[in-house]
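sorry for the late reply, my laptop died twice this morning and i had to redo everyting from scratch. anyway the thing you sent over, i finally got around to it. pasting the sequence first so we're on the same page, its 449 residues, then the predicted structure underneath. double check i copied it right bc i was rushing
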Amino acid sequence: MSNVKNFGATGDGQTDDTESIQHAINDGDGMLVFPKGTYRIIRPLEIPLKELGPLGISGSIGTATIVMDGPGPAFRLLGNHGGTGDPGSVKPATWHSERMPTVRDIAIEGGHKEADGFELTGTMQAIFEGVMIRHVRHGIHLVKRNRNIQIVNCHIYHNRGVGIFMEDLNLHQVNIANSHISYNRLGGIRIERSEIRNLQITGNDIEYNNTPRSFPELPNEPTAEIWIDTTAEGASVNEITIVSNTIQATNSKEGRNIRIMEKRNSSRPPGLITITGNIIGSQETNVHLSGCYGVSLTGNSIYSCSHRNLLIEDSRLMTIGSNNFRRHTEKAGTGVRLIDSQDCTISGCTFHDEALEGQKSGASLLELEHCQRITVTGCTFSDGVPYGIDALNCSDVLVTGCTIADTRETPRAEAAIRFKGKGSGNLIASCALHGDVSNEPSAGLSQNQ
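ok and here's the structure:
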């Protein structure tokens, strides 16, 4: 093993250990070991995997800390893999020299405002396990092209940029699991201008990734715990699962817990995204889906917003099932809004507003605007103000088997359901309505109670 102290590093937290550690990287045996201590560096440690061969970095069960006192990443891992995740596309030299660079049990801290944790490009099967990264800009920055990344059991915490940033990237097969990704000013996990396939975000605590909570002294920038933006030319995401996470925040201007922005009219349909079994709450909007196609949002507890629990815009083929939409505090709100969307199903969900006077926004529990072919079935709406369901300029909306009730001692709802504007083919059937239906003749609504 290449003990960095055998190459001249001191680990005293004061001495510049950059040259000594780079010496250990270049001339060691590939197993880079940092004994207990604090190692100060002032420029990125470059690791060209093709020249150096397989690499492992160990921080001695978390007792070693790297302080990056200069701009750029503490470690820059450079591979040359240009193939896919298919074993047949991986060159023998990659299997021999570059596969599975592994970083374990080490802490990275930033001492410079432009310091980053790790930057990876061209890597194959990189593994991060038991790594802590804090006080840098971006924690783990994935750029250009990588394959088969695993980030597990890590703490990416209180950074000025993004916790895990996928930017201008082609990446297939990435697992982010069992990690604490929190208090990062510009987001927990963020994807921009990239082609991503097979991304699993599972079992993580992703919270408070916004300016007010993490860096209140700095100007606010809109952000999200999970931010996926594929609106740039050539960008796309497919085969994404967001499962069994706690995704929580502090309300921030234009903030989201989950924000997915896709390009509706791209040559290849976006989508194949599942969001299931998460706790999602306390933001301006909890889940915001724009331009999406074929997203499943099921089995989540989604609570406490200042705008909407769920906002869907310009989207199609959305499955919204068995979610609990509610507020958690008196100051928060609740509710779902669909705009300019088609072919969506909302089933088995509960919508509840505990506030006596309704939400400060004046929004109903479910709002539909300029939508077509929406099915709402088997849902329960309680204590909405002014309405349980409010539809404007919609067609072919089917509301069936739902219960809409106002349980207050003095009812506050103006009606159970309202349809207004221009529409056709709308139907209410087999519902238990504790209140009237407000129906403008032009809305094209029929009732079969």
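Residues 18-27 form the longest helix (10 residues).
thats about all i looked at so far, will dig more tmrw
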